[in-house]
Amino acid sequence: MKALSFILLLFTSLLSHAQTIVNGVPWFDQNGETVNAHGACIVKENGKFYLFGEWKSDTSNAFPGFSCYMSDDLSDWEFRRVVLPMQKDGILGPERVGERCKVMRCPKTDEYVMLMHCDDMRYKDPHVGIATSKTIDGEYTFHGPILYNGKPIKKWDMGTFQDSDGTGYLLIHHGPIYRLSDDYRSIDTLVANVKGMGESPAMMKGQNGTYFLLSSNMTSWEKNDNFYHTAPSVEGPWTRQGFFCPEGTLTYNSQTTFMFNDGELPMFMGDRWSYPHQASAATYVWLPIRAEGTKLSIPNYMQAWDATTGKHVDLLSKAKRVKTNRIDISSMDHWTSGADGTLRSNHQGATIGTRFSGGRIAIFGETNKHGAYGKVSITDLESDKVVHSLLIDFYSKVSDRGLRYISPRLPKGKYRIDVEVTGDRPNWSDKKGNKFGTDNSYINIKDFYLIKE
Ligand code: GLA
Questions:
Q1: Residue 349 and residue 300 share a domain
Q2: Domain range spanning residue 364?
Q3: CA-nearest residue, atom 2 of ligand 1
Q4: Contact by Cβ (8 Å): 410, 451
């Protein structure tokens, strides 16, 4: 009997730790902090996955460092450290921009080489920089700009690609592809110049040897319909193929950063930026890629999916919807209810919330072009202390309904969750001064769900 209950327990714990990747909601590390690794890449080593990315701040676009997280399953991420912090001076010093760090292990030297975009705060001094480390999770030593014929590459968005024979490549926005030297420390040759390529380049080799190159249009932190090129070799010839997500979805509201391909289930990795509060509110869109011949596609958006099978996971099948009569609204005057029951408010300070017993709660809501930041807070009713608080973004250029937040796993207890209209808006301008973002400060909440685990 004891053995049976042990097996059952093991089985349930395995089930609750299925390798589920959940898109468009914040993820939390072992400390309850958001997984903060944007413009990211993944390196697999000894069966573990290492995620590197921009360790964004909520208050400034200045470079605070690049972060590294580790996972056994692509789903639960453990924060390791800031592997490359802000430097004392130079192109990654104070009040500089550092973006899109990409790490590869150099087969010749066994060194880990990180390349990245370095810039000034107005994006007027772009360079591709290089840092190296003897261990995968750092700390990395910064060496300044990587050189080609003794000169820096003065360009911005970049990516890397490691071919199956170990050759390393640097991909540069709007066309250039460079082959790295054997030790990955400098650049050997310009091998291609891809006509019609955009920003945020990412490359993958398909099973039949076709090379796929993804890139985006130039709309700053706003999303657009990203597209791809294919070629029989990195040198080309490169052919433009069109969009890889259904047109109009704006790449499922994300921008390409990387394609992770360990030979099992190739995965698209994109950023759902949220300027100016990226550390809290920017999220990830990771989806399995379908590559056949010279066609690459992500036919359907899945809010949640299993990283081993690539199949959709219904997160709400085990959840309990909180009844409307249990929802507290600060003042009904400030809220309007849509035909489907979605409650909307743009009145600063207006709140909506509910009490719950359990350990994990989720918010289902709508993002659209009138949306802005809502502040979620969870209060432990016994101690009357706020145990978790975070900004979430209700803006998107194309409307979307889905889960916007799933709380960290809290000790089982009695809590209340509140969402407040902050009046704080995601607005920004691009490198040319064009204005982007919301036209109002709405938050739109449909339901709260208690997640049972
Ligand atoms: C584009 C780039 C990002 C970043 C932003 C800044 O989206 O792809 O990496 O530089 O612009 O506006």
A1: no
A2: 320-451
A3: 220
A4: no
Rounded CA-CA distance 104/260 in Å is 12
For residue 83, being part of any structural domain is answered with yes
Domain match, 360 and 276 both: no
Residue where one domain finishes, among candidates 278, 306, 334: 306
Which of 95, 144, 91 lies closest to 118 in space, CA to CA? 91
Task: Share the mean pLDDT of the chain.
Answer: 95
Distance CA 100, CA 39 (A): 4
Pocket mutation for ligand 1, best pick of 116, 171, 199, 427 (most atoms within 8 Å of C-beta): 199
Intra-chain end-to-end CA distance of the chain, in Å: 23
Q: Where are the beta strands (DSSP E) in 135-226?
A: 141-145, 147-148, 151-152, 158-162, 168-172, 176-180, 187-193, 199-205, 211-216
CB distance 87 to 142 below 8 Å: yes
Residue 346 CB-half CA count within 13 A: 12
Most confident of 7-16, 101-110, 329-338: 101-110
Expressed in angstroms and rounded, the spacing between residue 123 Cα and the centre of ligand 1 is 9
99 lines ligand 1 (CB under 6 A): yes
How far is the centre of ligand 1, averaged over its atoms, from the C-alpha of 152 (Å)? Answer: 20
Structural domains in the chain (count): 2
Find the 100 Cα to ligand 1 centroid distance in Å.
9
Cβ–ligand 1 distance for 430 under 6 Å, the answer yes
For 64, phi then psi, to 5°, come to: -100, -15
- Note whether 224 and 339 are same-domain residues: no
Q: How many CA atoms lie within 13 A of 90 on its CB side?
A: 13
**CA–centroid distance, residue 197 to ligand 1 (Å):** 15
220 lines ligand 1 (CB under 6 A): yes
pLDDT in tens, 13-40: 444 456 999 999 999 999 999 999 999 9
Angle at 215 between CA 104 and CA 21, to 5 degrees: 65
**Pairing, β 147-148 against β 141-145:** unpaired
Report if pTM > 0.70: yes
Q: What does the DSSP assignment read for 94-119?
A: TTEEEEEEEEEE-TTT--EEEEEEEE
- Residue at 1 is within a domain: no
Q: Please calculate the CA angle 352-357-363 and round it to the nearest 5 degrees.
A: 40
Q: How much of the chain exceeds pLDDT 70, in percent?
A: 96
40 CA → ligand 1 middle, Å:
13
Contact in structure between 170 and 115 (CB atoms under 8 Å): yes
Lowest-pLDDT range of 213-222, 248-257, 323-332: 323-332
Question: Last residue of a domain, which of 281, 306, 331?
Answer: 306
